[in-house]
Every structure is written in C-alpha cells, then in structure tokens.
Design brief:
15 helices
C-alpha cells in the first residue's frame, strides 16, 4: 500500500507536465519557450531553496549543477527546439522513448536489471503514445529529431544520476529540488538572452500562467518526481512518463475542444495499460536507498579503481 501511494503521488508530476501545452498556448506570450523555461525553473528553485533553508556544501555544489543541467537546463531548451522543429506528435513520441534510456542507464549504473516485461512496457507505452499524437502529415527534421533524442537522454541521465548520487546526509527532496531548479534556470538564462533577446512584456494572463507553471507545474511537480526517485527504482519512476502526453491529449479534448479519434482512444488505453503493467513488473524490486555523502564518494572511488567498472 505504501508503494502504491508513492507511485500515485509521483505520477502527479508527469500528469502536471501534461498541462504545459495548454497553459503555454492559452496564457503565455508566444514564441518565448526559453524565457518560459527560466520562469518555470528559477523562481521555483529559489523559493524551494529558501523554504528548505539549506544550501549545497562541498561536492554538492557541482553535483547539483550537473543534475540541474541534465534535468532542467539542457532538457528544457532541447525539448523546446524539438517541439519547434518537429510536429508536436513526433516530439511527444521521442519524449515517450525516454524510459528506454533510463532502463539502459539504470542497468549500467545502478544495477537495476531490466526484465523483458519492463522493456516491453516501455516500448508498448511509446507505441500507445504514438497512436495518440502522430498524424499522417507528420514530417521529420534531422535537427529536431536529434534535439528530441538528446533531450530524452538528458532527462533519463538526470533521473539515473539523481538516484546514483542520492542526497547529502540530512538533506531532503525539497532542498535537492530547489538546488537543481535553480542551477537549471541559471543555465538557461544566457541561452534565452542570446536566442530570444529581452524579456517580453507581461499581462495579467501571463502572470497567472507563469504562477501556475512555477508553483504547480514545476516546483511541486519536480519535488514529487525527485521524491519518487528516492523511494522507488529509477525504472519505476520513468515508466510513469507516458502519463504526460496522455494528460495533454485529455486536456486538449476537455478544455480546448480538440477531438479524439477511435485510434487515439485505443492508443490512450494501450499507453495507460503499459504504464500500469510497467509498475507491476517492477513492484517486487526494492530500490536502493539514498546513501550518505561519504558512502557515495567511497563507492565512486571504488568504481574509478575497479578494472571492471561499468561505463
């Protein structure tokens, strides 16, 4: 029962991310995805860090920066580049392939052996998402495809490394989330300034949209996500990813008047079924708890001197 509750809470993160498209198109300034990325990450990161009243110490300054870049700073711009260069459906499918990266990296770096059922759940989930979002007019763009693949790999690597490095002794997920969002937001600022120029003028609708994105869509959602990584296996967490495009499709139908075809409904059922099956496939595995800083550093030192280290 405790695991089911943890999975349900963690699932709220990708469900929340599924509202990003609707909020961005209805409330936010157009053609400013990088500025939106900054507004999502940096204020939320500073707020959570202030609430946690804890700053990184020692090696956790650079570790937080690396995790923040992987999970936020590199992920957001690459995701937006993919979305601009590709039809939304193609970009969503590339994002839905993210669990496959995590399955492979978790086996390599965390020793989470991937069962056939787990791999099938990830593949079938991506297939179901493709039925929901792909259209016959979808065209591929090489730069967009590369950006989409690398963005999924970046988020996947961030998920696995968050699990591998754990947290410093006595530091909770609130502080870790704040550190990463702050680092990621700071990383995006120069990219946004170079590509998009000065910030746009904001009206009341934009403030409402950014407030939701900062507090709910990013601050709370990423806290739940990183909390879930600490209590579940990395594979279990990432298999919840298809809930994001499924939520986006439901919101598009319910709030934006977008129709859902029978093929899309079947795809939604397949993707949701694969998500549930993936959780059942990994339900019996016990996640490795977060270690203290000293233990992690000792493990890394052993890895570097072991001739059989897995790279």
């Amino acid at each position: 029962m405790k695991r089911a509750a943890t999975v349900a809470l963690t699932a709220l993160a990708p469900i929340s991310w599924g509202s990003t498209y609707a909020v961005a198109t209805e409330l936010l300034p157009p053609d400013r995805p990088l500025f939106t990325g900054v507004m999502r990450a940096l204020p939320a990161g500073l707020l959570l860090t202030a609430l946690a009243r804890t700053l990184p110490k020692g090696v956790w300054w650079w570790k937080s920066a690396v995790l923040g870049i992987l999970n936020i700073g590199a992920f957001f711009p690459l995701l937006f580049l993919s979305a601009y260069r590709l039809p939304g459906g193609v970009a969503a499918v590339l994002g839905a392939a993210g669990p496959l990266f995590v399955v492979g990296l978790a086996a390599l770096l965390l020793g989470e052996r991937a069962s056939l059922r787990t791999v099938l759940a990830a593949v079938v989930g991506a297939f179901g998402v493709s039925m929901v979002v792909l259209t016959a007019e979808a065209k591929l763009d090489l730069v967009g495809v590369i950006a989409g693949v690398v963005s999924s790999a970046s988020m996947g690597a961030g998920t696995v490394m968050t699990k591998r490095w754990g947290r410093p002794e006595g530091v909770g997920p609130l502080a870790m989330t704040g550190w990463q969002l702050t680092a990621g937001g700071l990383f995006i600022i120069p990219v946004a300034a170079l590509v998009e120029g000065a910030p746009p003028a904001l009206d009341g609708r934009a403030f409402l949209g950014y407030g939701y994105m900062m507090l709910i869509n990013t601050g709370i959602a990423y806290w739940l996500w990183f909390r879930g990584i600490g209590q579940l296996t990395a594979t279990s967490v990432t298999l919840l990813g298809p809930l994001s495009p499924l939520t986006a499709a439901v919101i598009g139908w319910a709030a934006l008047g977008q129709a859902l075809s029978p093929v899309q409904l079947v795809g939604m059922a397949i993707a949701f079924g694969a998500t549930v099956a993936g959780q059942l496939a990994v339900a019996g595995r016990k996640p490795q708890p977060f270690s203290s800083t000293e233990r992690i550093d000792r493990n890394i030192s052993m890895d570097l001197t072991d001739e059989q280290v897995r790279r």
